[in-house]
Amino acid sequence: MASAEAWLFAPGDPRRVAALRIGLGAVLALRLATGPYLELARQPAALFRPISFLHLLDAMPSPGIVAVLQVVATAAAVLACAGVAARVTLPLAWAGALPLIAMTSSLGKVVHNDVLLLLALVPLLPARSADAWSPGARRRRAGRAPGVAYGWPVRTALLVVAGAYFFTGLAKLLHAGPAWVTSGNLRWVLYASSDSAAAPNPAALFVADRPWLAHLVAFATLALELGFPLVLLRPRAALVLVPCVLAMHAGIWVAMGLNYWPMAVTVVLVLVDWAAVADRLRPYNHFLRLKKSHRPAPDSTMSPSAQA
């Protein structure tokens, strides 16, 4: 427990927390602005199948309430992304998004596209996420030094992401065991998704028609999910895990038509050390600034076309 506590509360870079605020806040704002919440609000009460706290209602929230929630939550997410009063605007955006996103799962089928995004945002709600890469940080003209306050939000979000994929893989083993890989389970799913589509899906049929390939894809999926906690011990494992997750979600989208891009983007935002990326890009940006500052001034006696 002492080792786990030391890992969780080790000092962190304020820029990495800020990167999560900007990235996850932007994804949340986009999902809130483009979600089908007003359409869901007009669904008949007979179709209402509430989950969780929505059991308190007899039907979907009214369109008026949904419109207000959508506008307020989207605006708050945009402000949080910009670093404006982030410790107020980010929790406000999250609280407004929670009932809206719950509506998408209250029609008889659980939709988990945004679940990982919401869970990864939880550690940022009380965090000092605007101490870097924000208007207030620029006014101070001095970045905050690394500290404990910036380490635990990132590592907690990392735990959430790693746990989400690990327990997904563990659920496969608990419910199906090795048969999830060795049986025709994945082939059946691919054939079913192709049959239900308007036209046959060549990608799904390509895998399903080759049993060895279907077993290989199933094994790779299970290995990826169960091996995700490795990133907690070896951060450089993200160099392998991030491309694999992107490939897995891209394959699911192409073969089955299930678009889980918010999950994939959340993985990228949480696993990548954006502060280190910024440090690597700094010499290149400095070179561009020097090149621009040493550019010779145009000759006023020349024509504009010659100057160009």
Index terms:
308 residues; mainly alpha; 17 helices; 68% helix; 0% strand; globular
Structure description:
The chain has one domain (2-138, 146-176, 227-288). Helices cover 68% and strands 0% of the residues. The protein is globular. The chain is built from 17 helices and no strands. Helix 2 (14-34) packs parallel to helix 5 (86-103) and helix 8 packs across helix 15 (261-271). The mean pLDDT is 90. The longest helix has 29 residues, at 148-176. The protein has helices at residues 2-8, 14-34, 37-41, 63-82, 86-103, 115-121, 135-140, 148-176, 179-182, 185-196, 202-208, 211-226, 230-233, 238-256, 261-271, 274-293, 304-307. It has 308 residues and is mostly helical.
Order of helices and strands: HHHHHHHHHHHHHHHHH
Q: Tell me the number of helical segments per DSSP (H or I, 4 or more residues long).
A: 17
Percent of residues in helices? 55-70%
Using the CA coordinates, give the radius of gyration.
24 Å
Q: N- to C-terminal separation?
A: 65 Å
**For the report, how would you describe the main beta sheet?**
none
Secondary structure class reads: mainly alpha
Q: How would you describe the shape?
A: globular
**Strand portion, in percent?**
under 5%
Give a brief outline of the structure.
The chain is mainly alpha-helical. The protein is 68% helix and 0% strand.
What are the SSEs and their pairings?
Elements: H1 2-8, H2 14-34, H3 37-41, H4 63-82, H5 86-103, H6 115-121, H7 135-140, H8 148-176, H9 179-182, H10 185-196, H11 202-208, H12 211-226, H13 230-233, H14 238-256, H15 261-271, H16 274-293, H17 304-307
Helix pairs in contact: 2-4, 2-5, 2-6, 2-8, 2-15, 4-5, 6-8, 6-15, 8-12, 8-15, 10-11, 14-15
